[in-house]
Amino acid sequence: MFNDINYWAVLMTGVLSLALGFLWMAVIWAKPYQRDMYGAPASSGQPSNAAKMQSFMIYILVSFVTSLAYAVCLELWQAGGQTFGYDGDSLANAFWFTMLLAAGFTLPFTVGKKVWQFKSWLVVAVDTSYEVIRFAMLLLFFWYWT
Questions:
Q1: SS3 state of residue 88
Q2: Position 21 in a domain
Q3: In Å, what is the CA distance from 144 to each residue of 6, 45, 91, 95, 112?
Q4: 30 lies in which domain range?
Q5: Could you give the number of structural domains in the chain?
Q6: What is the rounded radius of gyration, in angstroms, for the C-alpha atoms of the chain?
Q7: Tens digits of per-residue pLDDT, 32-65?
Q8: Do 75 and 1 contact (CB within 8 A), yes or no?
Q9: CB-hemisphere CA count at 13 Å for 60?
């Protein structure tokens, strides 16, 4: 299952996921997202630099795991086309498969921020749109680089 995975693409998309996340949440949507996600900064409630670094390292690992898992899912989906009679070589079909994965695996977490953590719908919209764009990026990298 892991033999046909392009690990250079996994590495690249893991790094690019971080860059996209920074651009999306800290540049494009910085003020409204940070306001609604974190609230007003408290003087004693700010995490230490060590805690921030630990969080960053964990997210780097998660980004690589997501890229690897997506690469495996895409390979399995393409192989399934031969078995189940759909066109596994169609980029359009792969796009809709990718959107289904993005919806199925990200909506429970992004919408959960609203229903369980009582964040705003803006946070849900920013997080969900980031995931949709990230999964589309993953598709394009793995589709054209493998």
A1: coil
A2: yes
A3: 11, 45, 10, 13, 33
A4: 7-38+48-145
A5: 1
A6: 17
A7: 988 888 765 555 566 788 888 898 899 999 999 9
A8: yes
A9: 9
Count of CB atoms situated within 10 Å of the CB of 46:
11
In a domain, 123, yes or no: yes
Residue type, 44: S
From 18, 20, 112, select the one nearest 65 (Cα to Cα).
Answer: 18
CA distance linking residue 108 with residue 101, whole number of Å: 12
Q: Greatest CA span in the chain, whole angstroms? A: 60
Q: What is the pLDDT of residues 22-40, one digit of tens each?
A: 999 989 999 998 888 876 5
For the record, the structure tokens of 12 come out as 């690249």
13 located within any domain: yes
pLDDT the model gives residue 42: 54
Distance CA 74, CA 80 (A): 10
Element (H, E) at 32: helix 30-38
Is residue 5 within 8 Å of residue 68, measured between CB atoms? yes
Is 2 a domain residue?
no
